[in-house]
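quick q for whoever's on today - can somebody do inverse folding on this one?? i tried earlier but teh output was garbage lol. tokens:
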């Protein structure tokens, strides 16, 4: 018997409710505040959606733990323990949401003994529900999905994120890394603006890899489950093992492509999610 299936089924239902709340909010005026910088945005909807998800799950599973983007922003700890833990990004792609750019997702990862047991990513404006349970494959709206299987980096479409960085050295490294990847050469680089959606696009074969430095565990947990169950690989930016709390990853359709990217990009220090930065 699978003890976590009930959790996953409930998580999908809550995610649908959250997606409905996001779609309704897009019909209204969006109230925006800045977090750490003029490009780090938070909306009332981020906070309301996270509150909806956590309160619903806590009522059903009162002993479970949570790591939520907005809770952490408000001062809650971001510590991964062995107990059942829900890792939640209420709106992955807040900047997209603010601009009504259509890649906006709700992302949930669920860990036990620090291992991801399932992932749920709802790209709510596309109405695409991605799900994966460890050892049971990955799905989009109930249909099985698989990675492209591309092995040749020169025939790959790569995803990343680009935006302003306060640290000028980090900013230069991000831009230099893009130039380095483009000059492999690859078919191109795209930046849809939602980490969870990016991993799902790799999972369903629409892109061949995604890399990011400065990401968070709530951006990665759901998508990492879906990508690996679709036959892809996740690893550290240096080519080492994937660490959910490390704030960096390469997600790819094959190990060869992931390793090719790892050889080309320079890491920079961005702290960890489970330590004081």
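ok took a stab at it. sequence:
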């Amino acid at each position: 018997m699978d003890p976590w299936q009930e959790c996953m089924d409930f998580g999908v239902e809550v995610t649908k409710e959250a997606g409905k709340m996001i779609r309704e909010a897009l019909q209204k005026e969006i109230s925006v505040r800045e977090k750490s910088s003029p490009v780090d945005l938070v909306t009332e909807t981020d906070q309301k959606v996270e509150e909806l998800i956590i309160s619903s799950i806590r009522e059903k599973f009162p002993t479970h733990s949570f790591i939520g983007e907005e809770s952490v922003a408000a001062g809650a700890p971001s510590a991964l323990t062995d107990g059942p833990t829900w890792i939640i990004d209420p709106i992955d792609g807040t900047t997209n949401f603010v601009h009504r750019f259509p890649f906006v997702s709700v992302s949930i990862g669920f860990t036990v003994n620090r291992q991801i047991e399932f992932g749920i990513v709802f790209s709510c404006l596309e109405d695409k529900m991605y799900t994966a349970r460890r050892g049971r494959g990955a799905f989009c709206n109930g249909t099985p999905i698989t990675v492209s299987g591309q092995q040749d980096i020169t025939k790959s479409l790569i995803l990343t994120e680009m935006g302003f960085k306060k640290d000028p050295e980090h900013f230069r490294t991000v831009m230099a890394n893009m130039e380095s990847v483009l000059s492999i050469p690859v078919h191109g680089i795209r930046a849809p603006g939602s980490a969870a959606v990016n991993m799902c696009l790799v999972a369903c074969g629409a892109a061949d890899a995604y890399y990011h430095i400065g990401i968070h565990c709530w951006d990665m947990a759901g998508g990492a489950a879906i990508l690996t169950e679709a036959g892809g690989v996740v690893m550290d930016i240096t080519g080492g093992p994937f660490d959910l709390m490390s704030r960096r990853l390469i997600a790819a359709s094959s190990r060869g492509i992931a390793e090719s990217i790892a050889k080309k990009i320079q890491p920079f220090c961005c702290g960890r999610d489970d330590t004081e930065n």
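fwiw The chain is about 35% helix and 25% strand. also The helical segments are 5-25, 44-60, 69-73, 94-99, 168-182, 195-203, 217-229, 255-264. so keep that in mind when u check it
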